[in-house]
């Protein structure tokens, strides 16, 4: 991982390099860039891939005390990364809460194409039982939050519907690794509480973002888990319809975290797009 100093602090990112078209991959809450580990090898021969670890709770370097960790603040961090790396005509891809960030960053002129992968949209914030649970946990003091999260060391706890049980069918190895910064670093637990409070502070923001997407006149792809239990499949269809150049791909045998459950199918959709 490479490090860069941005307004929020030190951000780690993976950069495959190369001269191909640029794809920027965004992950969700309590995750890191490893969400895309099985997708990147399948697309990197054709593209330069950038995968930042956003300050969403699984980051390893604590952010600054005054960092804006809201959805708009994180979208600003993504735009700053594009600027600092001098990236143009980017394909911006977001899964889970990374898709919410992508919706807010889509207006940036450096975004040439948009891909939304089973993500929060419209009024689904916080999303489902999983989202409502982590939103409630974010209201705890950092010490109690960290104490509660200790049970995430155990696979049965991680597989509960209130944890990752409805987000991925095959990705427990990744979810276990994502918990490590919270469990081992008090500063990351504090950041996690801050980000959960900030992300869910404005629960109508994606309704307004949807209005702006109607004006996104560049190519757009919506990839959705056909039987998603956290991000309603009808939201995928709605997003594809409201985007002027939107196209929908639905994928079977996967939950929300398609990069973990069906990385090959997702990579195929990205290459085709």
Number of strands: 8
The major β-sheet equals: 8 strands, mixed
* Helix-strand category: alpha/beta
- Helices and strands, in N-to-C order? EEEHEHEHEHHHHHHEHEHH
Specify the overall morphology: globular
Question: How is this structure best described in words?
Answer:
The chain is of the alpha/beta class. The two termini are 27 Å apart. The longest helix has 14 residues, at 71-84. 49% of the residues are buried. Strand 7, helix 10 (233-242) and strand 8 (246-251) form a beta-alpha-beta unit. The protein contains 12 helices and 8 strands. The mean pLDDT is 97. It has an 8-stranded mixed sheet, sandwiched between helices. Helix 2 packs across helix 3 (97-105), helix 5 (142-149) packs across helix 8 (186-199) and helix 7 crosses helix 8 (186-199).
Summarize the structure.
The chain is of the alpha/beta class. The chain has helices at 40-43, 71-84, 97-105, 128-137, 142-149, 155-158, 172-184, 186-199, 205-213, 233-242, 258-261, 263-272; strands at residues 2-6, 9-15, 22-26, 48-52, 90-96, 111-119, 220-225, 246-251. The protein contains twelve helices and eight strands.
What's the topology here?
Layout: E1 2-6, E2 9-15, E3 22-26, H1 40-43, E4 48-52, H2 71-84, E5 90-96, H3 97-105, E6 111-119, H4 128-137, H5 142-149, H6 155-158, H7 172-184, H8 186-199, H9 205-213, E7 220-225, H10 233-242, E8 246-251, H11 258-261, H12 263-272
Any key phrases for this structure?
12 helices, 8-stranded mixed sheet, 273 residues, single chain, 18% strand, alpha/beta
